[in-house]
Amino acid sequence: MKILTRYTITSILKIAIVTILLFALILAAVELFSKMDQIMHGGVDGSRLIEYIILSLPEYLMMVASISFLFAVTYFLSTLTANNEMIPILNAGVSPVRIRMPIIVLAIVLTFLGSLFQEHTVIAAANRHDELETELFGASSTRDSRNIVLTDEDGFLIYTQRFSESTGEIYNPVLVRTHDDIIEERVEADRARYDEAKGWWIFENARIYRIDGRDVKTEIAAEFEEPLFDPEPRLFRSQNTDIETMDRETATEYLARLWDSNRTSWQGMATDYYRRVCSPLAILVLMFISVSMNYNFKKNVLLFSVIQSLAIAVIYYVADMVFSIMGHQGAVQPYMTVLAPFVLTILLSLVISLLGRKV
């Protein structure tokens, strides 16, 4: 049994690794050639260009992993059938479930490792890749945010025209403090910076308007501090940053704030967040599809097996796209955009497998 398990896992991993690397390098080459004109005429440094290409690989590896393992499992099982290797295995008393069980365990392990890789490597590499793209090719920066509005539980609302990632400052901020939905204070400033030692923001060249009933008191200060207003600078950066590239802590904090301030935007952002967190599950789903398929074809076993698996994979990705659109439009809850395609695809693969065995 150990020999069969080792043979199954090593065969699938060999095929999958080669396929993943091949697909990832093709995608990296396509990206590189799309910028060839800028590279040739922009005098891009060779070492920085190599770093740029390497940083693109983690995202491409995750992108092609699910399809690659789908192909690897399909190729392995169809080869066993086509070469009549399945017959002596079954005659030795090994059940079909026993043959497929190591593949399911491998799929679970790969999904877990893919989730860790996604959160700790892919996101960091993607952020650095975007920064390097801005430096090398002059692409618009995704780090400097504009027209930001944030609220917090202490009754503060702030609007700022721009947050600079390089300086960590916000420009032309307007801070409003309310109590029971009544404005008590308004602060306008040229800029504000976050004081790490104190843990709050310091506003420069500030105009302070304090409202007491019908009276408004005006004050001008070179520096103004509000200790209760203490959101971290990363929350300003995250406002216009793709939630798929935020770290998990920042993303959850951002969604919590968005839930209080803008439910419509929260729906779309939460959909993207759930899809990002659960994206490694595609490896498990597609490998399960391959395992549950019927491989008892009389001729061209590999060809028909691959076509059968890819057909259901297409159904999964179409369902994923449809439910994603529905999630962004508010037709379904964000978690359903992830759960529904998984359930539908697994049920469909099981039905096809049962029908195939009766034929």
Written as H for each helix and E for each strand, in order along the chain, the element string is HHHHHEEEEEEEEHHHHHH
Structural class: alpha+beta
Please estimate the helix content: 55-70%
Mean of all residue-level pLDDT scores: 81
The amount of beta strand, in percent, is 15-25%
Distinct helical segment count: 11
How do the strands line up in the largest sheet? 2-3-6-7-5-4
Round the Cα radius of gyration to an integer and report it.
27 Å
Shape label: elongated
Please mark out the parts with pLDDT under 50 across 5 or more consecutive residues, or reply none: none
Number of strands: 8
* Main sheet characteristics: 6 strands, antiparallel, barrel
Termini Cα gap: 30 Å
What does this structure look like?
There is one protein chain. The chain has 359 residues and is α+β, with helices and mostly antiparallel strands. The protein has eleven helices and eight strands. The chain has helices at 2-34, 36-42, 46-82, 86-91, 96-137, 233-238, 248-261, 263-278, 281-292, 301-328, 336-358; strands at 145-151, 156-163, 169-171, 174-179, 182-188, 191-195, 200-212, 215-225. A six-stranded antiparallel β-barrel has the order 2-3-6-7-5-4. Helix 3 runs parallel beside helix 9 (281-292), helix 5 (96-137) packs antiparallel against helix 9 (281-292) and helix 9 (281-292) runs parallel beside helix 11. The longest helix is centred in the N-terminal third of the chain and has 42 residues, at 96-137. The protein is elongated and about 90 Å long. The mean pLDDT is 81.
